[in-house]
Amino acid sequence: MPPTNKTPPLIEFKGTTLPIVTVSLRSLQLGELGEAASALFGDDPFFDGEAAVLDLSQAAAASSAKWQFLKELFRTHGLNVIGVRGGSDELRESARTAGLPTYAAVDRSLRAAPRADDELPAPAAPPPVPEAKPEPAPEEKPAPAASAGARSPTLFLTRPLRSGQQIYARGGDLVVLAAVNSGAEVIADGNIHIYAPLHGRALAGASGDTEARIFSTRFDAQLVSVAGLYRTFDSGVPSDLAGKAVQVRLAEKTGDSSGKLVVEPLRTE
């Protein structure tokens, strides 16, 4: 019989999806970027060695940059810059010469990326695997469904949420006391209170509660959603909302209208 053992190939190609942080830069000045990074992440490494791509589409017009210094700047905060996307041809060529290839500007967070002003049904949030529950005895009647106003204990998040991570407060509110980084996602069946920078995605009223709201003391979100209506900020958050305290809610329905998602400054006086 011929031998059945085969020598495994030395090289194999397999498709995979890796978490990559996209860092949008509005300036290429090292001094300004250093101050901004320190204000966001402090002086210690914030990330755990994640790969990062620099988005240059919103950076000031420039033909080159000090790429090695930029890479070192983000490395001090735990990010490994592997390439760039967007920006002028000259800027991308400058990056390529410095060993940073160009990646296509594709947002993989949405299947069909709508514009910032679009308000469409939100993609279904993948909930955690439910815990197994024992079957009721045959003579027992099924318990009535919980009312919309029923709430589970509030879930508190006290650590930063990094890209690719997700927290889901099933049946209740979520209070976040640390930064929600770009690419991270917080979900709650009730309200979401974020007393820290919101750079990722926040989805309140995930089970359909139209009275749910999102509160953020420092707003710079990628996506917000309440009860199935969502809004993205692919081109950046408007200046009247960026970095400010805001609330996100649904306006009251009128007639056959399905409502409107409102993102507005939060009045504290």
User: Could you name the CATH topology of the largest domain?
Assistant: Pectate Lyase C-like
How many structural domains does the protein architecture include?
Answer: 2
Q: How many strands appear in the DSSP assignment?
A: 15
List the quaternary state of the chains.
single chain
Instruction: Spell the H/E element sequence.
Output: EHEHEHEEEEEEEEEEEE
CATH class of the largest domain: Mainly Beta
Please give the share of residues in helix: 10-25%
What is the 3D form?
globular
Low-confidence stretches: 106-120, 129-149
Main-sheet strand order equals 4-13-12-10-8-6
Q: Could you tell me how far the N terminus lies from the C terminus, measured between alpha carbons in angstroms?
A: 86 Å
Give the helix/strand class: alpha/beta
- Number of separate helices: 3
- As a percent range, the share of strand residues is 25-35%
Largest sheet: 6 strands, mixed
Task: Report the mean per-residue pLDDT as an integer.
Answer: 78
Identify the CATH architecture of the largest domain: 3 Solenoid
Region (Disordered): 114-152
Domain Septum formation inhibitor MinC N-terminal: 11-81
Function: Cell division inhibitor that blocks the formation of polar Z ring septums. Rapidly oscillates between the poles of the cell to destabilize FtsZ filaments that have formed before they mature into polar Z rings. Prevents FtsZ polymerization.
Organism: Accumulibacter regalis
Protein topology:
Layout: E1 20-24, H1 30-41, E2 50-55, H2 67-75, E3 79-85, H3 89-97, E4 120-121, E5 155-157, E6 166-169, E7 174-176, E8 185-188, E9 192-198, E10 201-204, E11 214-219, E12 223-226, E13 229-232, E14 246-250, E15 261-265
Parallel strand pairs: 1-2, 2-3, 5-7, 6-8, 7-9, 8-10, 9-11, 10-12
Antiparallel strand pairs: 4-13, 11-14, 12-13, 14-15
Helix pairs in contact: 1-2
Subunit structure: Interacts with MinD and FtsZ.
Biased composition (Basic and acidic residues): 132-142
Domain Septum formation inhibitor MinC C-terminal: 157-252
